[in-house]
Design goal:
The structure holds 2 protein chains of 2 kinds. By secondary structure, chain A is an alpha/beta fold. Chain A is built from 13 helices and 18 strands. Helix content of chain A is 30%, strand content 23%. Chain B is globular, with a radius of gyration of 19 Å. Classes of the chains: A alpha/beta, B alpha/beta.
C-alpha cells in the first residue's frame, strides 16, 4: 500500500492533547508520524499527498451504540450498509449491539459478525455480546469465551435486566475477564406503556409517558452493585439530569463507572415530537429542555464520557404507524459528527473534549485499537471541514433505512474523507 | 340544509382536534349545528347538501353510538355512507392503518371519519389521504365532535358558555373527551374544574387550564355543569382505583354530591354510562340530566361539521 501524507491540516488528537497545524504520515496502514514536526524525516517515497489546508484531521469516530439488522432484519441494515454509512460519517470503528435475530449470545454468532465484517465492511465492525442468553435476563452468557472470540463488551441492547441478582453476578464474573457491562436502564413496570417523556406535552398529546425515575431506579441499583462488586459498568444511554447526578456520585465514590449519551439527547428535546412524528420516538425518550442542557453540562464536566449515535435503522413497516405503535429509534451514523459539532460551534463543549467523547474515550473504555493518532496506531482518520454547511436530505442517506431525526436540518461540519487502516473508504464528492 | 352564505366560510379542511380552532371557528360550527337541529326535528329529515358525496366511516374501535351518529348525519345531508368495521377488514390480517387508508383513498371518498385506539392516528391519516378527515376519537388525544356537541347542549340550555363553571369528573388521564372539552371550554371562556382520583389525572394537569380537585364535592361546588366521564372496566379493579364500590363512594355522582352544584346545574355524560360506577341511576335519569339531549345534539354537530368541511371542497 502506498504511503499517505495528510498535509497542512489542523490535527486534533485528544489522546495526546494535541491541537496544532501539521502533517500526518501513514505507512503500511499505521500512523508513522502526526504533528507539526512530522515531515522532519522527509516525505516518504511515492506517497499520496493529500492537501488538508483548512481542514481538521482527527482520529476516526468510535460509535459504541449501533443497531444493525444483520442477522435477522437485513432489509433495515446490513453490516456492509452500516459500515458504508459509518464511513460517510467519519466513523471508523463501530460496535454492534447484540439484539439481532438470532441474538449474539454465542461464540458462533460473534464469529459470524467478525467474518461478515471482514468480508463486507469498509470500517471496523466489532461485535458485542449479550449479557444473558437470548437477552432474557436470566442466565449469563459465556462471557469469557465471547470475550476471547472478539466481543468488545457486554450489553442487553435495548433491554434492561430486571433481576438485581443476575446483574450482580454478571458484574462480578465479567470482572475476571476485564469485560465491561454496558447497560441501558429502564424499569419495565414503571415505564409501562410509555412512549415519550412524561409531562405536560405527553398529556396534551394523549400519549402515555415514561418518567425519568424509570431510568434512574435501575441505574441507581446498578451503580450500587458496581460499587459492591468493583465490576466495570457503563451506563450506556442516560437521558435525565437526575441520572447524571447519580453517575457523578458513583464516580466520586471511586466506582469503575462510565456513562454514555445518545447524540439525540444532546441535540433534541420532547417538543421536537410535534404532531406525533415517529422519527422522534426514541429510546431513551427525548426529555425536557432542562434535561438536554444537563446532558451537555455533564458531557463538558466529564460526568458523561461517551457520545454515541444510537443508530437504530427502522423501515416504513415499523415507523409509518401511529406514534404509540411505531418502533423507537433513529439512524445517526452519518449525522453524528455534524450534529455534535453544533455543541462546538455554539460554544457549549470544546472541540477537543467533543472528539475525545466521540473517539478516544470509547476506544479506551472498551479496549479498542482506535481513537488516537499516536505513531503506531492504526490509521483510522476523519478529515473534516468544521465549518462547511450542509442540509440533511433523505436522498443523500447512505444507510438502508431513512429514519433520521435530522431531515432538513442545517448542519455545519462535513466529513471530507475517511481513512480506515490508511485506506480511503469515503471521500466527499 | 342552509345556503352557504348563511354562515361565514369555514377555514379548515379537516377536524382533527379542538386544539388549533379559534373561538370563531367553534362558534361557526355551533351556529351551523343549531340550524341542523331543526332538520332532525322536522318530518322531512333529508337534505341534498352532500348529495353525490361519499362518506366512509372507518372505525378501528367498536362504537355503536358515535358511528350511528355519523352515519345518520351523513344520510340526512344526502351523502352516500359506507361503514368499515374492523372485524371484517384486512387490518386484522396485518395491514397497517396507512395501507388501509390508502386503499380507501383510492376509492375517492370525500370525507373519512376515523376512530382509532392510538393518539395521532387521525392526524397521520390526514397526511396521507386526499379528502377531508374527521377525528371521531384517537386514543387518549381528542374527540372534537363530542366536545362540540357538549358545548351545543350547554349553550342551548344556558344561553352561553363564557363565564360558566364546568366540572369535569372521572378518568381524565385516559379521556379524549376531557382533553377536547378542556380546550374548547377554555377557548370560549368557561371556568373548568377537574376532579378525579390522583392516579387518573395526567402529569402536568395543573398547567392545562383547569383547577384540580381530589374530592368530587369540591369540584362540583357551585358548578353550572357537571360532566361525568366513563371509567373503563379494565381500570376499575386494582390498577388505578381499588374497587368499583370505592370509586362510586368517592367519585360517583349521587344526589348528595350533586346538591353542592347550582340548583339548575346540568348533568352530562358522553356515554355509554356505567350506572352505579361513575353515576347513580337516579341522577342519570333525573331532571338535571341532559344526556339524551347530548345524543340528539351529536347528530346536529356532525351534520354541521361535515357540511362546513365539504362546503369549500370541489365537487
Amino acid at each position: 500500500m502506498k504511503p499517505v501524507v495528510l498535509k497542512g491540516g489542523r490535527i486534533v488528537d485528544p489522546s495526546r492533547g494535541l491541537d496544532e497545524v501539521g502533517t500526518v504520515v501513514v505507512v503500511d496502514g499505521r500512523i508513522a508520524e502526526a504533528g507539526a514536526s512530522a515531515l522532519n524525516q522527509g516525505t516518504p517515497d511515492g506517497a499520496e499527498i493529500v492537501d488538508c489546508t483548512g481542514l481538521t484531521i482527527m482520529p476516526g469516530l468510535v460509535d459504541t451504540s449501533v443497531h444493525i439488522g444483520e442477522p435477522g432484519a437485513e432489509h433495515r441494515e446490513t453490516i456492509a450498509s452500516a459500515s458504508a454509512a459509518a464511513a460517510a460519517g467519519g466513523v471508523t470503528t463501530l460496535t454492534m449491539m447484540p439484539d439481532t435475530d438470532p441474538v449474539i449470545d454465542d461464540v458462533a454468532l460473534v464469529e459470524f459478525v467478525r467474518r461478515t465484517a471482514r468480508d463486507t465492511a469498509i470500517v471496523n465492525v466489532i461485535p458485542t455480546g449479550a449479557i444473558t442468553k437470548g437477552l432474557l435476563g436470566e442466565e449469563m452468557t459465556e462471557i469469557g469465551l465471547l470475550s476471547q472470540a472478539g466481543a468488545a463488551f457486554f450489553t442487553e441492547g435495548r433491554r434492561t435486566i430486571s433481576s438485581s441478582l443476575v446483574m450482580r453476578r454478571a458484574l462480578t464474573y465479567a470482572r475476571d475477564f476485564g469485560a465491561v457491562i454496558a447497560h441501558r436502564t429502564q424499569d419495565r413496570d414503571l415505564a409501562s406503556q410509555g412512549v415519550m417523556n412524561e409531562g405536560l406535552f405527553a398529556s396534551w398529546l394523549g400519549l402515555p409517558g415514561i418518567p425519568r425515575e424509570a431510568e434512574l431506579i435501575p441505574l441507581e441499583r446498578d451503580l450500587l452493585l458496581a460499587r459492591l462488586t468493583r465490576g466495570a459498568y457503563h451506563a450506556a444511554k442516560i437521558s435525565a439530569a437526575m441520572s447524571a447526578d447519580a453517575i457523578r456520585r458513583a464516580k466520586a465514590d471511586g466506582a469503575n463507572v462510565t456513562a454514555g449519551v445518545s447524540i439525540n439527547n444532546l441535540a433534541l428535546n420532547e417538543n421536537d415530537i410535534g404532531e406525533y412524528r415517529t422519527f422522534f420516538r426514541l429510546a431513551p425518550p427525548l426529555r425536557a429542555e432542562d434535561d438536554r442542557l444537563a446532558m451537555i453540562e455533564a458531557l463538558r464536566a466529564g460526568t458523561i464520557d461517551i457520545v454515541t449515535s444510537g443508530h437504530d435503522p427502522q423501515d416504513v413497516d415499523t415507523k409509518r404507524l401511529p406514534f404509540a405503535e411505531a418502533a423507537s429509534g433513529a439512524i445517526g451514523l452519518e449525522t453524528l459528527l455534524a450534529v455534535a459539532l453544533r455543541l462546538h460551534h455554539n460554544g457549549d463543549v470544546g472541540l477537543m473534549r467533543l472528539i475525545e467523547a466521540l473517539s478516544t474515550s470509547p476506544a479506551k473504555r472498551f479496549g479498542l485499537d482506535a481513537g488516537t493518532l499516536k505513531p503506531g496506531a492504526s490509521a483510522d482518520i476523519a478529515i473534516v471541514d468544521l465549518d462547511a454547511p450542509w442540509v440533511v436530505s433523505e436522498a443523500d442517506i447512505v444507510s438502508l433505512s431513512k429514519n433520521t431525526s435530522f431531515e432538513g436540518a442545517r448542519l455545519q461540519g462535513r466529513v471530507m474523507r475517511t481513512l480506515v487502516a490508511g485506506r480511503t473508504v469515503f471521500a466527499q464528492q | 340544509m342552509t345556503s352557504p352564505a348563511t354562515f361565514p366560510p369555514y377555514p379548515h379542511r379537516h377536524l382533527l382536534g379542538i386544539k388549533g380552532l379559534s373561538p370563531l371557528d367553534i362558534e361557526n360550527l355551533l351556529d351551523r349545528a343549531e340550524a341542523a337541529v331543526a332538520i332532525s326535528r322536522g318530518a322531512d329529515k333529508k337534505r341534498a347538501t352532500l348529495r353525490g358525496r361519499t362518506q366512509i366511516n372507518l372505525f378501528f374501535e367498536a362504537s355503536t353510538r358515535t358511528q350511528a351518529s355519523f352515519e345518520l348525519a351523513g344520510k340526512r345531508l344526502g351523502a352516500d355512507v359506507m361503514n368499515m368495521s374492523v372485524a371484517s377488514s384486512s387490518v386484522k390480517k396485518g395491514e397497517t392503518l396507512i395501507d388501509t387508508a390508502m386503499t380507501l383513498n383510492a376509492m375517492r371518498p370525500d370525507i373519512l371519519i376515523i376512530r382509532h385506539g392510538s393518539a395521532g392516528a387521525a392526524a397521520l391519516l390526514a397526511q396521507k389521504v386526499g379528502c377531508s378527515v374527521v377525528n371521531a376519537g384517537d386514543g387518549a388525544h381528542e374527540h372534537p365532535t363530542q366536545a362540540l356537541l357538549d358545548a351545543l347542549t350547554i349553550r342551548r340550555a344556558k344561553g352561553r358558555i363564557a363565564g360558566l363553571t364546568v366540572a369535569i369528573c372521572g378518568d381524565v388521564l385516559h379521556s379524549r373527551v376531557a382533553r377536547s372539552n378542556i380546550v374548547l371550554l377554555n377557548a370560549l371562556g368557561a371556568r373548568v374544574k377537574v376532579a378525579a382520583p390522583s392516579t387518573l389525572l395526567p402529569s402536568g394537569i395543573g398547567q392545562m387550564g383547569v383547577e384540580t380537585f381530589s374530592r368530587l364535592e369540591d369540584a362540583v361546588a357551585d358548578a353550572d355543569v357537571v360532566m361525568m366521564l366513563r371509567l373503563q372496566r379494565e381500570r376499575m379493579a386494582g390498577a388505578f382505583v381499588p374497587s368499583v364500590r370505592e370509586y362510586f363512594r368517592f367519585h360517583g355522582l349521587d344526589a348528595a354530591k350533586l346538591s353542592r352544584a347550582k340548583p339548575e346545574a346540568l348533568v352530562m355524560h358522553p356515554g355509554p354510562m356505567n350506572r352505579g360506577v361513575e353515576i347513580a341511576s337516579a341522577i342519570a335519569d333525573g331532571p338535571q340530566s341532559v344526556i339524551q339531549e347530548q345524543v340528539e345534539m351529536g347528530v346536529a354537530v356532525r351534520m354541521a361539521v361535515m357540511e362546513a368541511l365539504l362546503e369549500g371542497a370541489p365537487s
